[in-house]
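(Deposited chain)
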Amino acid sequence: MTVPAGGGERRTRATPALARETCYGPTVRRISALLIATATALGCGSAASPPAPDPARELAGAYPEHATGGGALRTFELTAAEAEVPLIDGAPLKVWAYNGQVPGPTLRVRLGDTVRVRFTNRLPQETTIHWHGVRVPNAMDGVPHATQPPIQPGASFTYEFTPKDAGTFWFHPHVRSSEQVERGLYGLLIVEDRAPPPYTRDVTWILDDWLLGPDRQLEPGFNTPHDLMHDGRWGNAITVNGRTDTVLPIAAGERIRLRLLNASNGRIYVPDLVGLDAQIIAVDGLYARAPQPLGRFELAPGNRLDLDVTAQGGGRSLVVMDRFTPQRPNRLAEIEVDGTAATPAFPSPAKAHVPAWRGALALPLTHEYRLDARQGGPLGIEWTLNDQAFSGHEHAHPSLELVRGKWARLRFANASARLHPIHLHGMFFKVIARDGAAVDEPFFRDTVLIHGRETIDIGLVPLDAGDWMLHCHILEHAEAGMMTMLAVRDPQ
């Protein structure tokens, strides 16, 4: 299937259906000494005044500070190399691939397992692997010149870590990402719960788009002025798991966990599973506070969604559409419902502790980032954070220092008209305001889409020390400078 290329068409800005202010009063659980110290540092006000909001205390129990371990050592071999693979409509496509396949292999482990990946670079360029959304030791994060040297052609590197969280994560290069990811270098890392919910099936869909030339091969020009001035590289062929003809057969009554990843350089998707009961149970890996109807969820580059899907009524075919641009929908895949099956009965796993952080807007702003662009730089256009362009992963100093275990409130003010999905390494965060209005999304994120001229406030409590990257996940924008480093330091 072909669709218009570009990313410059007019789009409808959505008010997320899940971003409503609610009266959620979390039960404060037993917390670690670190968070107690943080709460003390925040202060409780005078005896005559009510206690000030304490977001660090509210976070306790949301997700673990330390990996639990106790599982198996799971060893994987990954090799990045040039390949020719039947993709799109089945014709051979020249790509760069992990282990000769696109998408790359899905690495599936259990919570508590230790992941060891022996990686070999057979590409004509240096590269690394970033474990997107996984709270890894800083040295395993895959950011060149910051957490490790780039892996040279012919060289190898071993990544080893014990994931702290169950969920849907992915891996991709962090060197020349706008080219290397576009050429096909990405794969899923699925960390299952210690006792996974008994879904009928666990299905993964990786959404991507490809810009093909007249020869039906990848257009060789990367970081073009058009892509840089707009919302990155948008392709003319949209695929699910590398194909335009993906069909998912299911029986009426089956209860499926459908994991979605947007691996595109720039394109945003709004998946429409009309005709199915589809509930969001996890966003960017972590379970939500409660299951939520899918509605109009904007799946930006880097975002993941886990859906609890049940079909009723056999003998029908449903077309799953992308409706990010309502007047120009795109076909994603087809679901064929036939036959019947018993529906597994079990409570939704979406029952996580996600603090509402009501009153957080009354707390001081820690830092504001202004997102904009200017002419100049090696690509002719620079995308900036506070008028600074981060070129080639070689910033000398972090733009912000945070304290491990201490609440922070960051603001992203988009002075441009373009889209910017902002991704933070090494931590989760929660959207607490859009254009100054308080919101309570019932889930955490590691990536949030910021529309043109929009301002978003996020709240976070970093639990992992190190130097972590913050960047736009429209990969052309990142390559043109919209990156920076955050330093998370231990409390003194």
User: Anything to note?
Assistant: The first strand starts at residue 73 and ends at 87. The chain has a mean pLDDT of 91. Residues 354-489 form a domain with the Immunoglobulin-like fold (CATH 2.60.40.420).
